[in-house]
Amino acid sequence: MADEMIRTQLIVAEKLVALLESSTEKLLLIDSRPFVEYNTTHILDAININCSKLMKRRLQQDKVLITELIHHSAKHKIEIDCKQEVVVYDQSSKDVTSLSSDCFL
To answer: Which residues does the UniProt record annotate as the domain Rhodanese (predicted)?
Structure first.
């Protein structure tokens, strides 16, 4: 878990726009907001994954793989590469270190 936090960083909207506009970066965008908010407006090609507390617990215990959730939630086939950049966003998180343990992010 500590190793995962080292690779985790907060990015601002402008950096995300730059990543999306550069053709060299292949991003996997995960929108973790409730479905209603996702359905109202979301980043093009983002996948909505909003889990129940039970599913979050199963993810934390490695009883289900995040790739299974992604494939289940995607509307089209997703190629997942272990070197691929992944951006997960929600409504308003501003500090990765202050997230609660039950937060999907």
So the answer is: 23-93
